Amino acid sequence: MLALAPENWPFGIEWLPQPAYIVGGAVRDALLGRRSEYLDLDFVLPTEAVQTARKIASYYKAGFVLLDAERQIARVVFPQATADFALQEGATLETDLNRRDYTINAIAYNPHTEELIDPLQGYTDLQAGVIKMVAPENLQDDPLRLLRAYRQAAQLNFAIEPATQAVIRLLAPLLGAISAERVLAELRYLLKAPQGIPWLIAAVEDGLLCAWFPSTNSAQLATLAAIDSAVDLLVEYHPQLLLELSRTLRDTIATSWLGIAKLVNLLPPEPEAASEQMLRLTYSRAEIRAVTTAIAYLPQLQKNTTAQMSLSEQYFFFQGVGAVFPTLVVLAVALGTPVEVLAPLSDRYFNPEDPVAHPTGLVTGKDLMDYLHIPAGPQVGKLITAIQLAHIEGKISTTAEALKFSAQVLDTQ
Hints:
about 425 residues; Beta Polymerase, domain 2; Hydrophobic Seed Protein; 4 domains
């Protein structure tokens, strides 16, 4: 398996004791032919797991993190790879594999002998595209594994074995006791995965997210199910929308604008209540702001289309929604608003020269203060807004006209 070949590792195989095993997702993905630019390896060693990791990190000047001192788990971080080293659980490798969550993650590979160890027939389940539990008690020991089944089903485009899904439904209430940070990490994967929506809906319907999204209803799930179709419809009119939706809110935040559209349908339709639930899940301020902005402005977008909104109303609408606009139009179409109705507003948003959606200032605050001999303060902001409105309505078009207009407004005030 090329992905697991030692020549592709960031360190030499001679650093590993014998025997040593690669386990988990790396083996699974290699058997499926899935490749990633970032290598993520999990090693199980019968002895000296932390010591081995520490020696490798020291020699290669890589990052070292002791993840669990009691269970002897450590991580070595390279620029393009991460290697975790864990002490084998139990007297044999088979015992260790029998303590894992799903059979497809319980396959081991010995890089020294190039041997696959598969006591639970995980490879058969890989070929069948099925996620099957190793044992109910393994899921009960770490309830996050319940949600992980849905995330992996979305990532791999697999099905969950019916008996396994029945056990997950039975154990679902346990997920409420898991830390918010761990739940959020799985949610981010589900919101990001191309096949994530059906499994996100299944997770809600199977009771896995009741503790975190207690108010989600069937109408919201129906809207969530329509998100992908809404995107397809909108992209026919505005191909650049797909790029906008795939952008993340910030470089440090993995959530995309499409992810925000999905997330809105799990939360209450009131900004304050939605904010409270997101805070409990440890979402960032930027994500909370994006969701609450979408919730606040969606009714206005559904009720007032371009034909009903004056230029000034459109201006304030775009000023209020900013980069959330692509998320809003997806939600509106998913809720039944025709794409054609939204097209004029979308045309404005995707035209960087449009003065309503993307106004360019004819004057700065300093220009106004110097020209009018007024101090900094709210009055300057109000004058700039008045100038912008006059500009988009075609009353003024130059800096000189803007300054003259500001004096007239000031006199009126």
